[in-house]
Amino acid sequence: MRRLALLVSIAPIATIGAAHAQEAAPPNLLPETVITATRVATPAERVPAATTIIDRQTIEERGYTTLAEALATVPGLHIVQSGGYGQPATAFTRGTNGRHTLVLLDGVPLNDAANPNGAFDFGQEMLGDIERIEVLRGPASALYGSSAIGGVINLVTRRAPANREAQAFGEVAGGSNNTLRGTAGVAGTVGMVDYMAALQSMSTRGADATAPRFFNNTGEREGFRGYAGTMRLGVQPTRDTRIEGLFRYRDTYFGLDDVPNDDPNYRGNDRNWMGVIRAETKPVEPWTLSLRYARTQERRSYNNLPDSFSFSETHDYYRGWRDTVDLGNQIRLPDIGIVNDIVLVAGVTWQKEQADQLSGSTFFQTSTVAASESHALHTALQFRLGERLDVALGLRHDAADDYKDADTWRIGATYAIPEIQTRLTGSAGTAFAAPSLYQRYGRIPGIFEGNPDLRPERSYSWELGAETDLPLFGRRDFATVGATYFHSRVRDLINFNPSFDSMENVDRANIEGWELGLTLRPADWLETKASWTITEARDAETKQPLPRRPEHVVTLNARIAPMPRLVIAPEVLFTGRSLENAYASYADDGSSYATSRYNRAGTVWNLTASYVVVKGMTAFVEGRNLGNSRYEPANGFVVPGRTAIVGVRAVF
Fold it and tell me: Any bridge partners for residue 253, and if so which?
């Protein structure tokens, strides 16, 4: 998938084999490799950017089922979901808009071309076929193009083990709200051929998404059913040549709610499939050449019939397509004096987006039927000066047939001070988000017309950070302390014009904040992590806070292994108050506020415990929202109540 090996328009590689049962031993201390941050496989401590890696072991030990759950503890990234499984979820990365986070699957863009804002819905993706999640915070358009203003999230699918002809893996679990989920798969390598196939499903009666504080709440539940299948087949005829194809299909069905009233027959369906074929070879030893074609399709529909709360009827559909062709090159250059580990990557990307959308009532119907093509030239250089300074540079030119060209750049460096076990990082760069097809070509007859002359939204950002390992009580890595300051200016933000009959580039935003982290390792069987994100995101003109960006987010989690086969993973998520839009805030009686108000702060407690019954088989129990918090990430929509799930996973 969009993983054009080491090229600038590629991202992932997963060198980890298919799922394996985890003994309750300390996490693997081998150097962690990051690819999304630079397009080149780089040890984590040498990456000049703020990154977070969520590997398969973490996903299982913390009981993450969906992408929204897994990302909730990432510093600088705030997820707002309107309820539980299947409900719409948006990511605000470092205070930027929801459309400013680019999501990839094995390097292939997943953002929905038919979405009015071109954003990604984080509420649909399950993690049964995911080996690791790489999160890059900060501007990344120089690497990945449009939408990477706040950051990039790359989902890396499972890979085949190189030393097994067949390895089966699976999971089955069930519990509260009639929840049942399962995963089954097999992967292996036979001669020059490797393969992986995985199926996953989940169903639940769900919870009521509407806040119980409303006087007229009926307690109607929002159920969810989801299915997904992934297949990969690779052929490596020679040591330096590989051809692989991947196909992934995901289909989810879910109930939806409205505020301040429950809506008993509002339903949604989200189908996504993607196909990728990729070839990589080395014409000569230092040069790697890659070619990839990928196609993704998103089909969403929402249906609502008249009921006692509303006589309206809705039959909305959104269909988006994206075709991508990447041609990439990577050249590892010889050392030049003290300059070593030199890697040059360069490539060309062509992309076509299409949207076919129809929503609303007969008398107020929004439609978008449009397509857009773009191409990009990109290059990046990564090298090390001596043994302490790593530098990464990136430059990209994007040109489209219907919006202004965009030139972006990024520079980053990390400096190691081994005498005090400290690492300093700094980076700066520009990014852009192309206007969506709806913003350019959407229309409501006689009421609204999109603006084909919109310019891309643009940003300039920089950050400085430091991380130090503190040796105490005889342990060299007893504690790790880190702090990163970030600052962004975003301009040409797209919003409605004063008469609300079209769109224009009118807004600007100033954002700054801190990402603070502390990890304690007082014993081999205990590791605790804490992060505190402070964000101030304001409208540059009015100086008002931007909606749904809490000033404070604190997460705490731990890995406790008191016995050789037992792992206990508690987790605490605290979200401070956040501003809500006017008329999107509701009193207990269901009346709306004419001015913006703040959503209250909330805390959610989770706990997962895993026990290795026999080698290759692990039993687990997952508790969610154990304090039964009624926290509302978006005003009127509440997090699901207390739940418990028990299950077993195995690998053979």
Answer: 225, 269
Tell me which residue has tokens 């807004």.
507
CA angle, 213 as apex, 212 and 215 as ends, to 5°? 95
| pLDDT tier, 305 (very low <50, low <70, confident <90, very high otherwise) | confident
| pTM exceeds cut of 0.90 | yes
CA–CA distance, 521 with 22 (Å, rounded to integer)? 19
Cα 124 to chain center, whole Å? 12
Cα gap 349→11, rounded to integer Å: 13
Chain centroid, CA 25 distance in Å: 28
Length of the chain, in residues: 652
Q: What is the pLDDT of residue 503?
A: 96
Asked if residue 629 lies in contact with residue 604, where contact means CB atoms within 8 angstroms, the answer is yes
DSSP 8-state assignment for residue 98: G
Find out whether 156 and 230 touch, Cβ atoms under 8 Å. Answer: no
Report the run of H or E that residue 141 belongs to, with start and end.
Answer: helix 141-144
Cα separation, 24 vs 190, in Å, equals 31
Digit-coded pLDDT (tens) for 35-46:
666 677 778 888
Q: Where are the beta strands (DSSP E) in 362-400?
A: 364-385, 389-400
Tokens 């007969």, residue located: 362
pLDDT in the model for residue 401: 92
- Please determine, for residue 18, whether its predicted confidence score (pLDDT) is greater than 80: no
The CA angle 39-40-43, to the nearest 5 degrees, is 125
Give the whole-angstrom CA distance, residue 457 versus residue 505.
Answer: 8
For residue 152, which of 189, 111, 181, 188 has the smallest C-alpha distance?
A: 111
- In this predicted structure, what is the pLDDT of residue 26? 37
Whether residue 48 has pLDDT greater than 80: yes
CB 273 within 8 A of CB 248: yes
CA 636 to chain centre: 24
Residue with tokens 């339903």: 267
Per DSSP, the three-state class of 56 is helix
524-530 own/partner pairs: CB under 8 Å, 24+ apart: 524/26, 525/26, 525/560, 525/561, 525/562, 526/558, 526/559, 526/560, 526/561, 527/26, 527/27, 527/558, 527/559, 528/556, 528/557, 528/558, 528/559, 529/555, 529/556, 529/557, 529/558, 530/554, 530/555, 530/556
**What residues does 101 pair with on adjacent strands?**
151
Asked if 79 and 71 touch (Cβ cutoff 8 Å), the reply is yes
Q: Tokens 């992060």 map to which residue?
A: 531
| Contact call for residues 601 and 577 (beta carbons, < 8 A) | yes
On whether the CB atoms of residues 504 and 510 are closer than 8 A, the answer is no
Percent of the chain scoring above 70 in pLDDT: 94
Residue 296's closest CA among 353, 215, 254, 216? Answer: 353
DSSP one-letter code for 586:
B
Concatenating the DSSP letter of every residue in 475-492 gives EEEEEEEEEEEEEEEEEE
Q: What is the mean pLDDT of residues 20-47?
A: 58
Confirm if 381 and 339 have CB atoms less than 8 A apart: no
Mean pLDDT along residues 614-619? 96
